[in-house]
Amino acid sequence: MYNVHSVSGADASAVHGGAGVDPNLPPHRQEEAKQLLSRCLNLGISALRSSLPAIDVVELVVRELESDPLFNSGRGSALTEKGTAEMEASIMDGPRRRCGAVSGLTTVKNPVSLARLVMDNSPHSYLAFSGAEDFARQQGVELVDNGYFITEENLGMLKLAKEANTIFDYRIPAAGLETCSVGAGAVESGLQMNGLPISIYAPETVGCVVVDSQGRCAAATSTGGLMNKKSGRIGDSPLIGAGTYACDICAVSCTGEGEAIIRGTLARDVAAVMEYKGLGLQEGVDYVIKERLDEGLAGMIAVSRNGEVGYGFNTTGMFRGCATEDGFMEVGIWE
Amino acid sequence: MGWAIALHGGAGNIPLSLPPERREPREEALRHCLKIGVAALKAKRPPLDVVELVVRELENNPHFNAGRGSVLTTKGTVEMEACIMDGNKKCGAVSGLSTVVNAISLARLVMEKTPHIYLAFDGAEAFAREQGVETVDAGHFITQENVERLKQVIEANRVQIDYTQPMQKDVLEETPTNGDSQIGTVGCVAVDSHGNLATATSTGGFVNKMVGRIGDTPIIGAGTYANSLCAVSATGKGEAIIRATIARDVAALMEYKGLSLKEAAAYVIEECVPRGNAGLVAVSATGEVTMQFNTTGMFRACATEDGYTEIGIWPSPMQN
């Protein structure tokens, strides 16, 4: 059911725009999403053709996703309970497992690029809030008003989320809600993630994983986080081993219920089962989705150093795309 | 099978020439914390309570790099972080605290009172006030020793750090000052006779760190991790511990390769992080305990129900 496509020694890439999709999402919105995913995949492919290393490719693809208001990262980020955008991201370079992460950004136009600078230009791996913003200024990255990231649509979603939270206990686990009432309105589909009805939930992140023709793997993930989150809440996206991981053998980017991904150390575990149990890439992804999520809902994309690409999710849908060097390319939402 | 507990006060370049006035208060603290941890386990307190109370004690002690006695940021301020996790993988973490007396207790409240795992900076401070935990003036945490330490490190690093140049992270060596580097964290792991596990880690971070720098301690799987097999708390160079996902890997090796607790910990410490970078304490669901490090020393103590006790700083004859 989940595709694996592999050509040894060749490059491959995958992108995602979040796991957990409203089954009632209007067709034109689905089309928009698929077009964005295709555009990003093609961007990645051109970059690979010009011999850019994996680490550069993941950064530029995620920048593209951040700049587009469609998904929940950069412009178009989900909003905090105060109606502001507070963004986080991480990036990891498989060779030598170098990494960089940022949280609590409010003016940095491309969080993934600041994460990269943390990795390359600072003695640390993770900077957050005002310290991260200071570093951004010091590094001369592009800064904008917080308003740049906020869309009308998300302001509307925030309102609905606040209303929904007065009805739903936010801490009720989202398990067991596989059925949805056919033909009902969006809010009544019955599906929930992180305690919110799926139509309001907003898939949480964007991400990209790449292996270049020299077998170097890299991963990057970026998000605005959870709709209506408390300011200061950090999710899985900036946490190495949870939302993002890359090493010699693979690169992984996850999306979904942040707390479940953290607890399951999802991204690291794919690499760990490959390394310690000898599983292949797709086997590893399937194993982790099945065994490491307990009642949590999430999805992931992954590439291996052998040019394989794989993905998996236990949610209703995941916006994703993947491509391999032999010309294979696929963009999808549902199973 | 019985209960077991281990705790640490930081791994690092602790020189053998550490003068008695610096060594003895820490040894005494380790002894004291071990005693209260053991008493709590004997009184059948759940491991989650035990690790929290031991780490609170270590946070309150100004001789360790957590709570009072935290090392200072490059601006001379204190930014504390902590993380707690139990064998059911419930967890809580906080970063960027400047007024909360016991960061570990706030981490526990994040775990128990919110749907989130991790709160940081202003949001975490606001949560602390909402919860009515004890807060004090930021000056409370700052010790003269750490003011001195910061001054000396800034002097020594003045030439080394240019943040606009590509930075080799392993080049940034901890510079021993007064022959006592005080890097690392405090932590405690415990298991009861039913196999319930818990871990807690707390720290002020890295001396002269950039404001806003987050280390390994609050990152689940890096400095702190527990599941049904074991509980781990790590200490050392945060950046190295993060990339090696140390705490998670100990458990993963046990689960996926069938290694014992000691074998898994040894593998991670010897093979997964460069020498001089890390140490950890860990207990398993079956009551085993291990304390391993590849640094010069690690302030540590452990005890098991069958009467074994160890308190140490440098490698002991029994290690490995």
Automatic annotation (TrEMBL), chain A:
Binding residues for substrate: 233-236, 255-258
Residue numbers marked as site, Cleavage: 204-205
One of the GO BP terms on file: proteolysis
Enzyme class: hydrolase
UniProt KW Nucleus keyword: no
Xref: Pfam families: Asparaginase_2 (PF01112)
Lineage top rank: taxon: Eukaryota
UniProt source species: Tetracentron sinense
Catalytic activity: Cleavage of a beta-linked Asp residue from the N-terminus of a polypeptide
Keywords annotated in UniProt: Autocatalytic cleavage, Hydrolase, Protease
Active site positions: 205
Subunit structure: Heterotetramer of two alpha and two beta chains arranged as a dimer of alpha/beta heterodimers.
UniProt GO molecular function: asparaginase activity; beta-aspartyl-peptidase activity
PANTHER family: ISOASPARTYL PEPTIDASE_L-ASPARAGINASE 2-RELATED, L-ASPARAGINASE
SUPFAM superfamilies in the cross-refs: N-terminal nucleophile aminohydrolases (Ntn hydrolases)
Region ranges (Disordered): 1-28
Protein name (Swiss-Prot/TrEMBL): beta-aspartyl-peptidase
TrEMBL record, chain B:
Gene3D superfamilies linked: (Glycosyl)asparaginase (3.60.20.30)
Gene Ontology process terms (BP): proteolysis
Keywords annotated in UniProt: Autocatalytic cleavage, Hydrolase, Protease
Site (Cleavage): 184-185
Subunit structure: Heterotetramer of two alpha and two beta chains arranged as a dimer of alpha/beta heterodimers.
Molecular function GO labels: asparaginase activity; beta-aspartyl-peptidase activity
Annotated catalysed reactions: Cleavage of a beta-linked Asp residue from the N-terminus of a polypeptide
Entry binding sites for substrate: 213-216, 235-238
Catalytic residues as annotated in Swiss-Prot or TrEMBL: 185
InterPro entries: Ntn_hydrolases_N, Peptidase_T2
Protein name: beta-aspartyl-peptidase
